[in-house]
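Go through the following before class.
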Amino acid sequence: MALHSGGRYWKRHHKGFLGMRSPQERIHDNILNGHAPLEGLERFTAFFDMEYKRGSDVVENFKRYATFARHYPNAKFLMNTRDKDDWLRSRVRHANGLYLKQEMARKNLSSDEVVAAWSSDFDRHLRKVRSFFKGEADRLLVFNTDKDDIQKLVDFAAPEFPLDTSHWAEVRSTDRIVEKKGWQDDGADLQIAMGDAA
């Protein structure tokens, strides 16, 4: 079974399955207390979007890849990537700009400063992950969602995790959500800010 971020699917369809706390908080606490990161979540075999933000609380478990690698030597790691400008624009537009506004308030930064920080973090994280797993192609797949064929992921996951390509589709595209909900497109003028950040 797969667990995405805060486990909204499991909380919605299987009440009591995860309890009230975010599973990302549980993972974070496990790490801080010296336990195996996934203690208490053993029924799940795949974890995605390992981030949790609420108010001033920020948990970025995806940055603890070295801890996961040490505790789970047979685990495989998938790192999605895409065109950085598109990723930044999507973040700015996420939840009708709320994600950006929360980050501005949390860090007391302007929108341009937040975007510049995100841009630097994107490059740094990709570089550090690739460096950590250098020489371990069987453990890390960097998957470009803009360009890579799904068969690349299928081959990487096999044989432990057989994937059915008929389920592969684009979902929750920010462009479609912005258009459907009639949100203001705050990402349209982002190119200047991203050019300055680079």
About this structure: The two ends are 39 Å apart (CA to CA). The longest helix spans residues 111-132.
